[in-house]
Amino acid sequence: MADTATDKTNEAENSRLVQTNPDYDPNVIVETQNLSKVYRDFWGRQKVRALKALDLQVRQGEIFGLLGPNGSGKSTTIKLLLGLLFPTSGRALVFGQDATETTKNERIGYLPEESYLYKFLTAEETLDFYGRLFDMPAHVRKERTDRLIEQVGLTRSKRRQLKEYSKGMTRRIGLAQALINDPDLILLDEPTSGLDPMGTREMKDMILELKAQNKTVIMCSHLLADVQDVCDRIAILHQGDLKELGAVNDLLQVSDETAIRAKGLPVEAQAEIEALIQKHGGELLSMENPRTTLEELFLSIVRESEQRPGRRKLSDNDAQS
Q: How crowded is the C-beta side of 191, counted as CA atoms within 13 Å?
């Protein structure tokens, strides 16, 4: 009975959140409208403009990447979405409600860049503790704890204190903690930091599994290859300005070049054009626009931004993205 009452309370709360915003679109999980943040000194004078008129949308079920060098506004954006900071101007909406609405956080999971967990607790005790913060019944906490520990690969270490964990293991339990409330939106800050190649691959697979469950993921990372592997769309920030926004495949495609891929050709025929491919008995496998790498795109945007400061004007296609 208590579990049923809790479920009904949560459903009523979620319903109330939706109904209070007549313009709410359930397919848009996160939206920022001219979002800006200025940090000021003790005297109220402007110290740093961390974010400048950010406009973007994150849709349900997508993996969205926030990229940028240190000081670009990524962490500020995450804190504004969590309601940990108040915007200087503009709005941040999460689930159709203002980001300062604290009840929305029940539907959010957050993995910070550094996980501040209680070192004297075991993995089981850690997840049980955070489950209690969400008022979960004991049997739900037990089921989720067991499932998440297995999911992040810590079954053999679940009864060890966290002070004995490596950085990679701490990262894994941090992700499990972010998922304990079965959130609809997961915010990940440098999720693969400190992981070895195998752990990095497993982390990326877990992020893709969240997408398969129709959950929405926003991740910040300096490891561009990781973002390129898992993200559907990205936003590149530099000095608080939005410099690029769009689908990864579209941004990385080199439209003014054509790549031809063939097999069965002798070495002397590789430099010839399509007509000669057929002449030499080769098979044309594809003829398409090649892709650059996310690292090359990122570096070119940052360098151009440093040479030509100012907010990039979005095209119509970008605005619709």
A: 35
Residue 273 has pLDDT above 50, yes or no: yes
Q: Classify each residue of 244-281 as buried b or exposed e, where b means 16 or more C-beta atoms within 10 Å of its C-beta.
A: bbbebeebbeeeeeeeeebeebeeeeeeeeeeebeeee
Alpha carbons 125 and 118: distance in angstroms, whole number:
10
Residue 183 lies in a domain: yes
Cα angle 278-282-287, degrees, rounded to a multiple of 5: 80
3-state secondary structure string across 15-54: HHHHHCCCCCCCCEEEEEEEEEEEEECCCCCEEEEEEEEE
Structure tokens at 279: 């002449």
| Count: domains in the chain | 2
Mean pLDDT of 7-18: 43
Cβ(115)–Cβ(177) under 8 Å?
yes
**Is the Cα torsion angle 189, 191, 192, 194 positive or negative in sign?**
positive
Measure the CA–CA gap between 48 and 100, rounded to whole angstroms: 22
Query: DSSP string covering 150-188, please?
Result: HHTT-GGGTTSBGGG--HHHHHHHHHHHHHTT--SEEEE
Rounded Cα distance between 51 and 187, Å, is 18
Residue 300 placed within a domain: yes
How far is the C-alpha of 318 from the C-alpha of 321, rounded, in Å? Answer: 5
Range of the domain at 276: 259-288
pLDDT interval class at 9 (50, 70, 90): very low
Q: What is the pLDDT of residues 59-116, one digit of tens each?
A: 999 999 999 888 888 989 999 999 999 999 999 999 999 999 988 999 999 999 888 8
CA angle, 217 as apex, 215 and 218 as ends, to 5°?
160
3-state SS class at 306: helix
Domain assignment present for 3: no
CATH number at residue 128: 3.40.50.300
Go through the chain and tell me how many residues it has. 321
Tell whether 282 and 169 lie within a shared domain.
no
